[in-house]
Design brief:
The protein contains 3 helices and 5 strands, in the order ββββααβα. The protein has 77 residues and is α+β, with helices and mostly antiparallel strands. It has a single domain, classed as Nonspecific Lipid-transfer Protein, Chain A (2-Layer Sandwich).
Length: 77
């Protein structure tokens, strides 16, 4: 399982396929890619924006494994 966050052009890739998660800033393929702006991410963090509403409103773009994206959403909401 791998997950990639793209926040304003910065990339964080998390590879969870081994015993420990490996986090890099490499722009590698991932099972799920979540693209969001820093502004929206801060609103999510501060509880000012509902993650599902942000996805439905196009403020968060998700590519790939939607099941994995839903797991991430449960961490945020």
């Amino acid at each position: 399982m791998s997950l990639k966050f793209v926040v304003d052009n910065a990339v964080v890739h998390i590879d969870g396929s081994g015993d420990q998660n490996i986090t890099t800033q490499e722009d590698k393929e991932a099972a799920c890619t979540i693209t969001v702006s820093r502004e929206v991410l801060e609103k999510l963090r501060d509880g000012e924006l509902n993650p599902m509403m942000a996805v439905m409103g196009g403020q968060i773009k998700i590519g790939g494994d939607m099941g994995l994206a839903m797991k991430v959403q449960s961490l945020l909401g």
